[in-house]
Design brief:
There is one protein chain. The protein is of the alpha/beta class. The chain has a single domain, classed as 2-Layer Sandwich (Transcription Regulator spoIIAA), CATH 3.30.750. 47% of the residues lie in helices and 32% in strands. The protein is built from four helices and five strands. It has a five-stranded mixed β-sheet, sandwiched between helices. The longest helix is centred in the middle third of the chain and has 17 residues. The mean pLDDT is 87.
Amino acid sequence: METRIDISTSHFPIIILTIEGELNEYHIDRFAKDMDAMLSASQEKFIVISQQLGDTSMSPKVRVKLGQTLNYFSGKYVKRELGVFVVVNSSLQRIMMTCLTLVAKNKNLHVVSSVEEAMEKSASLLNKAA
């Protein structure tokens, strides 16, 4: 299994993040640089879908850093960000994440069960924004 955070713009303005493997701070720093460069290059509104594949693991420190990085982008690009969808396969984890969204600063944060659900909701957000 390759360790990576892949940024796919094949459905732009929907950006799909695929997280896989055992991430460390280097992966988060590299992702932050690549994501910021990509978002800075365009002035379009966008939606982020984040999914974790297989046995993705992160230490608590790395998980916090990833969360802080995503929050940073939500703040920096608040006028252009239409939504952030986090794909969580586990029902129990989805409930826990949904509770966290209630207190999150980012009100564009949504928890979904699949990429397909995220794509459907993204299409709806894009239609409303048009």
